[in-house]
Every structure is written in structure tokens, then in C-alpha cells.
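A favour, since you know our C-alpha cells better than I do. Could you add the entry underneath, on a fresh line?
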Amino acid sequence: QVALVESGGGLVQPGGSLTLSCQAPESIYSGNAMAWFRQAPGEERELVARILSTHITEYSESVKGRFTISRDDAKNTMYLQMNSLKPEDTAVYYCNLRKIRPLMAQAFDYWGQGTQVTVSS
């Protein structure tokens, strides 16, 4: 198995911005959807945003209009640009890649190690 490598977390003040990155091996990057999830202490892991291989995007209602998910296919890298950050955005953010094997009716999820985002004054 191969791993996803994510970076970019840190401490930021409310209203500030932060950009997360997630790089995947080329062998699994092409043709697969990727997503950002987050999990706050005591809460369930939730989907933040998803981007398909076609670059179609989806966002949770809580981040829509503030976050932008993108991917650079030449670099096998996905990004999450986070603007107007709020304290409730504080969580560990996880990179996800879902590899679909349609002929076998299977899906396999790869995960990054997680990066902490803290929004506090």
C-alpha cells in the first residue's frame, strides 16, 4: 500500500487563512476522487470537501463559500484553501483518496496522517 502525505496545518486567528496540501503517488492519483475530512475531539469524522478526477467539487454546508478544494494533476497534489476561518473549524484534517475498482465492485480508501488546524485568538 502507498501513503498520502499531507501538510499545512497550524494555528491561525479567526478570520485568517490556511492552505492544506496532500500529495499522492502517481500510481493511485490519476482517475480517482479525493477529499478532505476533519475530526474534532469528541465528534465524528465529517466530510469537508470532495473533488473528483474531473475536478467537479462538493462542499459541506458549513464551509461552502469559505473553503476551496482543488487539485493539480501535474503534481499529483490536492489542496484545501481555507479562508475566513472560524473557531469551529478547529480539527484534525485528513486527506482521503478513494480508489475505485468498478469491475470488482470495490472501493479502497487511502488516508493521510492528519494535520492539526487550530483557529483561536
